[in-house]
Q: What sequence folds into this?
């Protein structure tokens, strides 16, 4: 990625009074153990989001900024709890939220759930599918079956189009060493099935994973994740940013504090980023490369390519699945 592309993202960042994107962890459990994810070595307790916590958050988002992009995962697979997921969606819709989004590994998005999914109020579902060939896909998506995931996503696309549902369906490809030669085949496959295709770089998750992204620190920009996005773990704790996957640097709890006040508390870090005073960022930011990954290529079927978009506009890459 060149400096102009990063600076184009940086130009979209500023002081936001409320997060542009909000991720709430429906469950911290997962059925996979992907190699590019921090979940396989996650130490914090795993549990499931109490519906009442979502209600509290949804009510505030609806009152303050109903267009906020809401995501129902941070670290975990939401379709392990499909009834809760659909209930949360329905509640979000009932209070007027305008952007309800799901990120999934796709293994459990089976056809028996498709009609409920298409009717639950979701605006977008993203399938994390990092490969076209079975060998590379299953190397990275450990415990997944490439053919099951492809079948689930293809059948959902067909059912969506059959019913004329407005649900946006996207497949997301994380480029890594052993799948990079499959990108063109992948694009053609999914565009032909009426999916939006997104191709993105790998996250380091706060510097925990080696990504091989060769971008110089001299080209550093304010971290788009820190500036645009807020996360709430299933137990209500709020980490400093998406790189704080264990909540080692948590800044309060959504059970006890308003999202507005929690976001304000995190403002001290956003100010440092925006001032480009990088030496004074917390230690984790010095090894994390996720500030480099705020852009992606997006292709729409029968439409124009969208090579780079600012993270907070319509991009959906923070969640793990
Ligand atoms: S660069 Fe810093 S603020 Fe951004 S994700 Fe990494 S650790 Fe978090
Ligand atoms: S990337 Fe998603 S599906 Fe894979 S281990 Fe992480 S949370 Fe689970």
A:
């Amino acid at each position: 990625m060149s400096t102009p592309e990063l600076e184009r993202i940086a130009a979209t960042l500023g002081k936001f009074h409320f997060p542009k994107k909000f991720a709430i962890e429906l469950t911290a459990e997962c059925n996979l153990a992907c190699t590019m994810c921090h979940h396989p070595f996650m130490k914090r307790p795993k549990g499931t989001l109490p519906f009442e916590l979502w209600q509290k958050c949804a009510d505030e988002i609806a009152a303050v900024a109903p267009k906020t992009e809401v995501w129902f995962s941070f670290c975990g697979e939401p379709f392990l709890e499909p009834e809760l997921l659909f209930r949360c969606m329905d509640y979000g819709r009932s209070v007027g939220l305008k952007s309800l989004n799901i990120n999934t590994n796709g293994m459990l998005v089976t056809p028996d759930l498709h009609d409920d999914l298409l009717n639950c109020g979701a605006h977008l579902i993203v399938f994390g599918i990092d490969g076209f060939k079975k060998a590379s896909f299953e190397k990275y998506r450990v415990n997944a079956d490439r053919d099951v995931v492809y079948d689930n996503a293809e059948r959902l696309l067909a059912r969506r189009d059959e019913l004329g549902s407005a649900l946006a369906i996207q497949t997301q490809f994380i480029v890594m060493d052993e799948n990079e030669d499959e990108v063109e085949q992948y694009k053609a496959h999914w565009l032909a099935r009426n999916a939006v295709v997104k191709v993105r770089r790998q996250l380091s998750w706060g510097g925990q994973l080696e990504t091989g992204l060769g971008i110089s620190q001299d080209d550093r920009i304010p971290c788009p994740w820190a500036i645009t996005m807020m996360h709430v773990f299933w137990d209500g704790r709020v980490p400093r940013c998406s790189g704080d996957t264990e909540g080692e640097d948590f800044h309060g709890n959504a059970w006890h504090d308003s999202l507005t006040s929690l976001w304000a508390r995190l403002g001290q870090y956003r100010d440092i980023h925006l001032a480009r005073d990088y030496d004074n960022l917390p230690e984790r930011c010095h090894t994390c490369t996720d500030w480099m990954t705020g852009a992606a290529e997006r292709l729409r079927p029968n439409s124009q390519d969208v090579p780079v978009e600012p993270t907070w506009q319509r991009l959906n890459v923070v969640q793990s699945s």
